[in-house]
Amino acid sequence: MDLKLFEDLIALARTQSFVRAAEMRHVTHPAFGRRIRALEVWAGAPLVERNRTPVQLTPEGEVMLKTAERTVESVANARSQIQRHGTNQGMSLRIGTGRTLARTLVADWLARITHMPRSPLRGKAQIDIITGATSDLAAMLEQSKVDMLCCYEHRALSVPLNGHRYRHLTLSTEKLVPVSVADAQGKPRYSLIGASQATPLIAYGIGLSMERLLSEHFERNPLAGMNVFLRCDSADAVYEFVKKGLGVAWLPWSMVAADCQRRNMVVLGGRSDEVPFEVRLYRPRARQADVVEAVWAATEFAR
Q1: What is the enclosing helix (H) or strand (E) of 276?
Q2: Is 212 exposed, middle or buried (0-12, 13-18, 19+ CB in 10 A)?
Q3: Is the pTM of this model over 0.85?
Q4: From CA 143, how far away is CA 74, in angstroms rounded?
Q5: H or E element: which one contains 77?
Q6: Are 207 and 136 in contact (CB under 8 A)?
């Protein structure tokens, strides 16, 4: 039995889609389907109800899923312990997060922990920041390839981690706010409503966390008078486009707060135009390396 087949089943159960699971596992859709078939042949029973949308597991599939989750987690933990025993005596901390979070709230959090008296990050500790898509990073946490996961939490993009095996802290509450560059008088160059012509919207790339947050927000709060002028998969680039006066964008408050205080940018609209969400830190419930436990305890203390 190849362990990757168990990982495939876990991905399929999480996404409820052969296409999305194949993308998560970085294989083609046909190849992923063949691997699930191979697991069913090995198990001796159908594991997936293919005629249902979204895809559901059969009762036998649910039994196999529980075994797969336990097995993958156990093997990953053993591998992690062996690697840590031989490298830096468990003083490496691996954090998975998004690119925008890495430069904003994660940087602030690590600075607070580092500057605490008797900080667990002083001395020999080494921090590795791994950025990527939340779904990929969640899989890495399950495979013990990262020690902690810092990500957004919102009904539009909840992280599908098993609450029995993982715990979380809320690091911060955050919000996306619509902003425009300010003119020489400190007034916004663009507005959300009442403009004589359509306001250019700087949007996020399809599938990004920010894009999913905004799509859900616009479904509930349709905005007239805005046209997508530019789309980009980098919040840092979107920020620069706004600064250069190319249009309006919804950006994290932590990213634009200083600009708004200096009147270089102006927040548009009101509370109903903001998109609030949480920033959460996840870790396994099982005992981890000393540095992970120490950083977690320091984070709980500092909240």
Answers
A1: strand 275-284
A2: middle
A3: no
A4: 9
A5: helix 59-86
A6: no
